[in-house]
């Protein structure tokens, strides 16, 4: 039930967030173009992520999926919250992110250790949340991860 409530709140807030808060332009790259990138590239791995979960790129929210790919954090509601903690640890600050963290923490107090681990991982990585990922789609994913010390929560 708690996951349903948070997903519903997200669905209600997504369009206003895309329209009025996100100022970056949409990438306008279909999955077919992403999976045409070289195998080791961020673009290819992003395309595979979208296919694996049967997602379509969300205009102006493409970076969110890139964060999943780079951090290897899943898409369950607790994992989504952990990714927000990871980004908070990495230095990202926004009212939206803080709102998600506060609500998520209230709904998932039993996951606080998982969230703390994600925060610490984000803290140890060099700031990467603000990069222009569309320009990095051709780069090898491992090069980006090693350059910015991005590690998975599983490690």
Automatic annotation (TrEMBL):
Source species, domain of life: Bacteria
Entries under InterPro entries matching the protein: Coq4 (IPR007715)
The name this protein goes by in its record: Coq4 family protein
Record lineage: Bacteria, Pseudomonadati, Bacteroidota, Flavobacteriia, Flavobacteriales
């Amino acid at each position: 039930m708690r996951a349903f409530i948070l997903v519903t709140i997200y669905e209600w807030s997504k369009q206003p967030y895309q329209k009025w808060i996100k100022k970056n332009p949409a990438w306008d790259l279909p999955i077919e173009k992403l999976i045409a990138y070289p195998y080791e590239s961020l673009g290819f791995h992003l395309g595979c992520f979208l296919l694996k979960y049967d997602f379509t790129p969300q205009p102006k929210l493409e970076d969110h999926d890139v964060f999943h790919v780079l951090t290897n954090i899943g898409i369950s509601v607790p994992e989504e919250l952990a990714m927000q903690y990871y980004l908070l640890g990495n230095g990202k600050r926004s009212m939206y992110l803080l709102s998600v963290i506060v609500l998520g923490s209230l709904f998932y107090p039993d996951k606080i250790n998982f969230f703390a681990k994600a925060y610490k991982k984000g803290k140890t990585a060099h700031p990467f949340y603000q990069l222009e990922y569309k320009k990095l789609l051709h780069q090898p994913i491992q090069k980006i991860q090693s350059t910015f010390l991005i590690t998975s929560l599983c490690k």
